[in-house]
Fold:
Amino acid sequence: MKVLFVSAFGESFPLALHLLDEGHDPAMFIQCKGYKDVGEGFKVKRIGSLDECKRLISSGKVDLSYTDECKQKISIQDGIYGGGELADQLRKLGKPVIGGNAYGDKLENDRLFAQSVFKKAGMDVVPVVEFHTWDAGKKFLKKEKGSWAIKHCGQTPRDLNGAFFDPEEMMSFLEWSEEIWDKETQHTPVHFIFQQAVKGIEIAVTGFVRNGEVLPGTVYLNQETKKLMNGGYGPSSGQVSEVGRFIDGTKLYEQTIAKIAPLLGKDYLCWMDINCIIAKDKVVPLEATCRNGLPTAFSFFEGVGNVGDFFESVLKGKEIKHSNDWITNVVVATGTFPNEDKDANKKPLILGLENCDLSHTWPYEIRMEGEKVRGAGEIGNTVTFTAKGKKIEDSFQTCLKRTEQVKVLPFKKIRTDGYEKAVKDFPQLEKDGWI
Structure:
């Protein structure tokens, strides 16, 4: 199978590497200049431009295309990296595209729109208020008090979002955000929401959607760990570890993605997930991710097997079979992770990768320099390991043991307690009848 990856930051390189190992013929185009060295020196074919990608698809030399966080023009000032718009364009060239669509982009990036969709779908939404100035937000908070989460519309540094149950603490956060906003976001327009903060278990329900339906066997419940340091300290990252398992036909599934999938349209062919707060008697949707979330996708493939087999099953409508074990992942990072740096993250030396079992190994920001494996890209997200186990603790410990196979010079960043919340939260969800 010939698969073309059209990627914003090279995040799909691990999938291309797996396809190559499985005997398929992958190729990759990376849009963002600072990440074009991701995967350099490996045997995955490199495509030089988006126009060349379109010619390959149009000429029938590609069986399947795959988009991730792509947009035709990548700019921090845009603040939105949705890939659905590009996927819509590529579909017009006559070949299948695994990727979102323009509606999914809007659902992910326009938080007020998402909440309106959740409400129309019959989900338990909480009050949301929109702001375009810091003063308006501070004025509202002084009057209303209460517990709120602040979330920005579009893509901004993760540490600029937060949930606060103390109004005075949130006011301090707003004042601090206003001080550093222009420099941290490169003058992105101010646009944020307050969403009433709810106490409960935060978790995501993921599924693969085709023709407006969630494919049976693809519903994957997962809990991410975002803070960099043990104990929940340090900066927020995209994700440093995860615990999850496949669930079929549960109440939680029926109350979340089963309600939203039909709204995505017949052209949507991709994963989507809804991140929620689950209280004892209700599910509060926080946000939707309408693309392939990483490294959740790596855990997904740990559970369903080969990447190529899954792609073929999706295209041909075959049954999806999955493991019933607990699945975990752990990210090995380095350098300035989770912050970008154009130079620092290209310097590390990675040792031992050649001895790792690729079926549980997902190398990302790496490149070959002669005979040496070095860092690539700009964020220091080096490699993710995955594992399965009958118990959460066993799976996570296996995953940690796999991380020891790789040495990163001068240092690696890793979180070793990413399972501790899950061993309490998943049994509670089962007790409350959600799974």
